[in-house]
Amino acid sequence: MSKPFFITGLPRSRTAWFATIATTAISICHHEPTAGSLEPALKLWRGDSSYPYTGISDAALGLHLGRILSELRPQTLVIRRPIQEVAYSMFRYTDGWVDLDHRKLGEHLHAVEMQLDKFATHNRVLTIDYNSLHSTEVVKDCLAWLIPGCKPINLEQLMHMNIQSDVRYNVARARKILKG
User: Fold this and answer.
1) Pairwise CA distance, residues 164 & 17, whole Å
2) What does the pLDDT look like over 67-116, one tens digit per residue?
3) Which helix (H) or strand (E) holds 169?
4) CATH 3.40.50.2300 holds for 3-179
5) Long-range CB contacts (< 8 A, 24+ apart) of 171-176?
């Protein structure tokens, strides 16, 4: 089994971008592979991998942070972004055409935030502010925390890329998570 690592935060906190950066010669990082369901994520982490490090970057799995930390003990990066900014970013990202239950979405975001707060001082958790991801040195420090010895490829170029998953995919995923 490879060594696990975990990247989480609220949605729209650059977790897709960080998953791309955390995929290196010695690591693979899957972005939102399980629609917030913990069991498939645990199976993925525990499975055989040709990489020394296997990561998952997933905002919805933040709800399960306690269990993930106790069962797998992964190095964990929590990217903190204020809920108001997340909501605004989600609205802009979907261009206002998405009809999600805003009450349920708000409840979900607050529940994730409470879990992140609960484990903020855990010895396997590094918490950073969303806005600090503009610093190459901060990103390098985060990568060293998650994947000791990694050498990021093209980090200077990746720092200026807008990497995000498809809006329709994310809307379908959000609906599934909010129903559950």
Assistant:
1) 6
2) 999 999 999 999 999 988 887 887 776 666 566 567 777 888 898 999 99
3) helix 167-179
4) no
5) 171/94, 171/98, 171/100, 173/32, 173/35, 173/36, 173/60, 174/11, 174/100, 174/105, 175/100, 176/35, 176/36
